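Internal tracking record. Fields below are filled automatically when a chain is submitted to the structure queue. Please do not edit lines marked as system-generated. If the sequence contains nonstandard residues, flag them in the REMARKS field before resubmitting.
Queue: standard
Priority: normal
Entity type: single polypeptide chain
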Amino acid sequence: MSALPFDVVREVPRELGRLAASGVPTCGPMAVVDAFRLRDTYEPLGDFGIACEGPAHSVLLFAKRELGDLAGAHVAVTEESSTSARLVRLLLEDHYGLDGLTYERGNPGGASARLVIGDEALRAAAFGLDDYPFVYDLGAEWLGWQALPFVFARWMVAKSVPAADRAVIEAAIASSLESWEDRLDDITARCGHRVDLDRDGVHRYLSTFRYRIGPVEEMGQRTFEELLKERD
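SYSTEM-GENERATED OUTPUT FOLLOWS
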């Protein structure tokens, strides 16, 4: 991927979605809710994405009381996420039927539950989160509700990008996916220390996800979008 003849912007998917709305990046892994929102100007790049069927391990809701007892709770939502922020509301309000919930971005004091993702979630899963003894994996919760994989992000490309450039990017992504296990030592050296994962732990975590979106993942993605439309 480093050999691509394009400028590279390194941001979390939610930020890429914000930048895409202003016309900055031409291609990237975009939070799936931003992919829905920007489909007039962006479209999927091949079948590349990030999905899981079951626990995601890095998209977690930590709570001070059991999930079914969270009616009326104040929920802190990470600022890094677009998709997980919408998913947690669907799960709490539509699946579990909880009412009176309020949500706030960041980490406000006094929240009854906290949605954390990525490195922070992996660290919290390993070492715990003060005052939040109950932990719920949103990937597992979605599977238990809908019996489908959940798609967190899709590689999207601006419709204006020429076919030749798309082909170069697709080939680079495909090559990277085919060789990631051969680069485990490098990945572990660069990232493992952030979440206290050794080589085997990094492999287990990366193996959680599906990086190509097939028919069953597409069904999960459509179901998520339909549920969001019912709320909007």
